[in-house]
Amino acid sequence: TTESFLHILHRNSVAISWIDNQSGCKGVCNSLDYLQARNIDNGIFCEKNGNCFDEILVKALDKKIDLSLNQQLIALHQIGNHGPAYYSRYPKQFEKFTPACNTSDLEKCSNAEIVNAYDNAILYTDSVLSQMIDRLSKITDREVYFIYVSDHGESLGENNLYLHGLPYRIAPDFQTRAPFFIWLGGKAKQMKSCVTKSANTP
Q1: What is the per-residue pLDDT for 5?
Q2: Integer CA distances (angstroms), 163 to 83, 116, 174, 193, in order
Q3: How many C-beta atoms surround the C-beta of residue 135 within 10 A?
Q4: Torsion-angle region of 160 (φ positive above 0: left; ψ -120 to 50: alpha; else: beta)
Q5: How is the chain classified by DSSP, letter by letter?
Q6: Cβ contacts of residue 2 below 8 Å, gap of 6+?
Q7: What is the tens place of the pLDDT at every residue in 60-84?
């Protein structure tokens, strides 16, 4: 009896693409243009029978941007920093915080090693988002909005809790407060001063 926001936009002539580097869209993108990111890999970003690094989404974004369309929305579903296998979410060259936990069995690692692995994954996500914004910043003839939001936070040992998924009413802020930002590009930049004035208003 309900439909997703994406379907509502699609019915109003917005071209929708869902690009997935995780576990599917759970029905949110049913009947819409769907691309499994690993299907465009040429052996650089994806491990055989394993995860793909989120940089594959930058390549997919390049393929899906269509400047002939008046309105387009591209949803990019990251693997992100899902635990407990933080170490598998980033390439080795992003292992800047060491020593890092290199197993999904967190009981075998110290808290510092777990946090280091998570921070390395965050560092990699930062790089991926930066690459996406670089691509979008080249579009100047239309309004461009880049919205990033995580579906949950993560506990990293505070009060001896790890990962996420506690019932919302008892979950700590570390799990329920999620990152969110908006980047404006192209002709949308003119809205920035207006938005900035209201940025700290509830």
Answers
A1: 92
A2: 6, 14, 9, 38
A3: 14
A4: left
A5: ----HHHHHHHTT-EEEEEESSS--TTTTTTSEEEEGGGG--SSSB-TTS-B-TTHHHHHHHHH--TT-SSEEEEEE--TT-SS-GGGGS-GGG--SSS---SS-GGGS-HHHHHHHHHHHHHHHHHHHHHHHHHHTT--SSEEEEEEE-S---EESGGG-EES---TTT--HHHH---EEEEEEEGGGGGHHHHHHTTT--
A6: none
A7: 999 999 999 999 999 999 999 888 9
Q: How high is the mean pLDDT of the chain?
A: 93
- Token pair 């404006």: residue: 184
pLDDT digits (tens, 9 = 90+) for 146-199: 999 998 999 999 999 999 999 999 999 999 999 899 999 999 988 887 888 888
Neighbouring C-alpha atoms within 13 Å toward the C-beta of 83? 25
Q: Which amino acid is at 202?
A: P
One-letter amino acid of 16:
I
